[in-house]
Design goal:
Layout: H1 16-32, E1 34-42, E2 48-55, H2 63-80, E3 88-93, H3 103-108, E4 113-122, E5 125-135, E6 139-144, E7 147-152, E8 156-161, H4 165-171
Parallel strand pairs: 2-3
Antiparallel strand pairs: 1-2, 4-5, 4-8, 5-6, 6-7
Helix pairs in contact: 1-2
Length: about 180
């Protein structure tokens, strides 16, 4: 997919079991007004399915949202049964120091610091904390104390925001002035 449009990549790329779960639950979550940030399946004997979600309207996710998602996902997975045997479901918000799994997240958090782990070193860097300068479907431009560098999006193994005062301020709900 080659586009600079931040909405072109709504959900993170998943593989294997996570991809099957995503394909199974995504339509229901979309209908309910949620987006998948990340799906992880952890453990073998009794796996835990971790689903990290956002509200599609961009507002903060609350515990009631997690309960709605949990009921919907549990019902869909019980019917489609992609995981043999017993399993546990955990639903959470992405949080302030969220993983960066979608292009729209990279674009939204330009100017903030991310901790990035790369599949292949770029300019001698395999892990770094750097400011997000820009992002497209193909690449991310980052800046650290050594300067700016470009990383192919496909080479990013993991990335998450670093909790800073600036990020907390940017993530705070906007208050509306009260009429007197």
């Amino acid at each position: 997919m080659s586009s600079d449009n931040e909405n072109d990549i709504a959900a993170p790329a998943q593989i294997g079991l996570e991809a099957r779960i995503q394909a199974t639950i995504e339509p229901s979550l979309t209908d309910l007004g949620y987006e998948i940030v990340r799906i992880s399946v952890l453990g073998r004997e009794r796996p835990t399915v971790q689903i990290m979600a956002d509200r599609a309207d961009g507002s903060m996710i609350v515990i009631e949202d997690c309960e709605i998602i949990s009921r919907a996902v549990g019902a869909v997975l019980d019917v489609n049964d992609p995981i043999p045997g017993r399993w546990t479901l955990e639903v959470s918000s992405a949080g302030i120091d969220r993983p960066l799994t979608r292009l729209k997240d990279w674009v939204r958090f330009v100017g903030h610091i991310a901790r990035v782990e790369l599949a292949l070193p770029v300019d001698g860097r395999r892990r770094c904390s750097a400011v997000i300068m820009s992002a497209t479907a193909e690449q991310v431009v980052l800046r650290d104390d050594k300067g700016e560098f470009t990383v192919p999006m496909a080479d990013i193994r993991r990335a998450k925001l670093v909790l800073t005062d600036e990020l907390i301020a940017a993530s705070a709900p906007q208050s509306t002035p009260k009429a007197h």
